[in-house]
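User: For documentation purposes, I need each entry recorded in a consistent format: the amino acid sequence on its own, followed directly by the corresponding structure tokens. There are two entries in this batch. Please keep commentary to a minimum and don't merge the entries.

Assistant: Recorded as requested. Entry 1:
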Amino acid sequence: MANEATQTFLNSVQQAAQTYADQMATAAGDVAGAASGGAIDPFVFRLAIFALAIFVGYYVVWSVTPALHTPLMSVTNAISSVIVVGALLSVGVDASSPGDDGALYARAFGFVALVLACVNIFGGFMVTERMLSMYKKKG
């Protein structure tokens, strides 16, 4: 009974947080549109957010101490495994309509994402193993 109550509470908190994030993103887009008189294309706005995320990610990753690098690699491997699941779903798209090239592109990009994510996962595990072996005693 307590687990159900806890799960219900966590679901409501998660839904409230998602709603709040959606409202903030919509408000930010509305403010940017109002400030520019509607001249900002939504694609450009999202591209700017993506570019800012690249810079923030760069500075966050390079400010990590070497002792925390191995756990950070483990977390990024877990994130890549989620990408693998999405890529597998994309590769499995049914190409039912012969005139539609969308399913073909989805399968092609899904396959590329699958290959790159797998390389990232296995490379991350190799780097993590190598770093952990540096802390083992010799002999």
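Entry 2:
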Amino acid sequence: MQQLDPLIVNKIISYCEYQERCESDVKKKLRTLEVKDAVPYLQRLRDARFVDDARFTRIFIDSRYKRWGKNKLLLELRKRNISKDIYQPMLDELQDGDDYMQAIENAATKKWKSIKGKSLMERKSKLIRFLLGKGFEMDKIRSVVGKLQE
């Protein structure tokens, strides 16, 4: 078995202890530390349960779903190379909840107060663009925006 550099092991453990990390985050950090072979370090972190993509995904979704929609969460998880088998059930569970629709309504209501526009249609289109940028789905946005009044 390959001997691991204790200095790098300590740095990477500290990195993982600071906040929950996924494997791709740890790989990037190991590249910045100029580690040639990241596999033994990753295996050591997995064995010690410092890195767990399922745990990271659960925490990531739970901490952001009130501000971000499913599409933005999906994009960020794909960017971090999280397996679809891990994130898809969690996102499906999230989308079925009433909290998700409440999050869209809260974001829409809060933004609606600050949107300026010459007509109601212009204000609604600005709100729709804002909510799409947050990653919410168009069908859910339409139902929320339809409820809003001037």
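Summary note for entry 2:
Residues 98-147 form one domain.
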